[in-house]
């Protein structure tokens, strides 16, 4: 995680003022990958209780527009934010608990997939989300199925 002076430099390099609230919001995003807004608000308040909810929302918007933060929103999920920007990566999402992890692009170029028809668009990004079950939920599911199977055989 970058230090406070490094975060302030990142903000200035993106032509943003390095305010206390923006610095706290960016630090929270770095400290909590794929966090939702509520988690970021809580993290900011742990460090700077004087920062308002609105300042966090405004900070996330400004950081996203400046390219310092990436906004993702898998289907059925609230908005999430991550600090990993500027590369070509995707995500894997657990269908059960909603855990999210980064997945590097197999090709590495941006975008890593070519559309069969671009309809005149200048495509600069392709979003891929892999869905499945995280290790904890996979194990829990197998255990529950095993218990149900034993219970059904007793009936």
Index terms:
single chain, 155 residues, alpha+beta, Arc Repressor Mutant, subunit A, Dna Ligase, domain 1, 2 domains, three-stranded antiparallel sheet, 5 helices, 6 strands, 15% strand
CATH architecture of the largest domain: Orthogonal Bundle
Structural class: alpha+beta
Question: What percent strand?
Answer: 5-15%
Total count of domains: 2
Q: On the 0-100 scale, what is the average pLDDT?
A: 88
Task: Give the low-confidence spans.
Answer: none
Q: What integer value in Å does the Rg equal? A: 20 Å
Largest sheet entry: 3 strands, antiparallel
* CATH structural fold name of the largest domain: Arc Repressor Mutant, subunit A
H/I helix tally: 5
CATH superfamily of the largest domain: Winged helix-like DNA-binding domain superfamily/Winged helix DNA-binding domain
Task: Give the CA-based shape.
Answer: globular
Give a count of the beta strands, DSSP E runs of length 2 or more: 6
Please give the share of residues in helix. Answer: 40-55%
End-to-end Cα distance, whole Å, is: 55 Å
Strand order of the largest sheet: 1-3-2
The CATH class designation of the largest domain is Mainly Alpha
H/E series = HHEHHEEEEEH
Account of the 3D structure:
This protein is 43% helix and 15% strand. The protein has two domains: 1-86, Orthogonal Bundle (Arc Repressor Mutant, subunit A), CATH 1.10.10.10; 88-155, Ferric-uptake regulator, C-terminal dimerisarion domain (Dna Ligase, domain 1), CATH 3.30.1490. With 155 residues, it is α+β, with helices and mostly antiparallel strands. It is globular and about 45 Å long. The chain has a three-stranded antiparallel β-sheet with strand order 1-3-2. A three-stranded mixed β-sheet has the order 5-4-6, with no helix packed on it.
